[in-house]
Hints:
mainly alpha, two-stranded antiparallel ribbon
Amino acid sequence: MEQWNSFLETVGENLTFLAVVFLIAAGLIGLAYGLERMIAHKSGVAYQKLSVRKMAVIGMMAAIAMILMWFEFPLPFLAPPFYELDFSEVPVMICGFLYGPVAGVLVELVKIILKVLIKGTSTAFVGDFANFAVGCSLVIPAAAWYQGKKNKKNAVIAMVLGTAVMTVFGTLFNGVYLLPKFAQLYGMPLDQLIAMGTAINGGIHNIVTFVIIAVAPINLVKGAAVTVIVTMIYKPVSRAMHRIP
């Protein structure tokens, strides 16, 4: 009877997690869509739906982003090893700049689906969900801002804005939901996760200090790196993409 109750509890926990994943993903797509409609209305132009060409580019960028996710590396001087840095947001951001926030979110979504199908997960899917949600918090505001005026200066402002939003959202989301859920689904006490942070920085002694001292800097470093790379390569990539019939 106890085993049956434990099984039902595990199923319930996973179903609850999947429901949260679905609701947040739907909310992020809805937010991106609403921003695109608002930008189109403000600019006095007709809203451009996804064409076959755009969907092909989204698929290509998602495949590149998925490959880049494989080249993850930790920053042991900042955070425990289960936090790793990758550059998969570079093609996500390029697609978002090209076609708007909806395209960026779709690249994020397809990227994660491809990664889980091909490579699986080592974080009980929590890390994959975190990558999607936090990545969207970067691309949605940045892509939406850039659509207002497409020039290099505005691109930098957009990326800085996106990095700021990602840092705040990622820090809060990790502290409130992701870290406790990771501990629960991975079967590791939350105190043990915090202790891994304490071993790196003695100032970490609870979940609040963990996300402020470890998680926030990781997001800042990632946002800064993506900003530099996208700023350098976006225009050549954009010109090449527009030459494709």
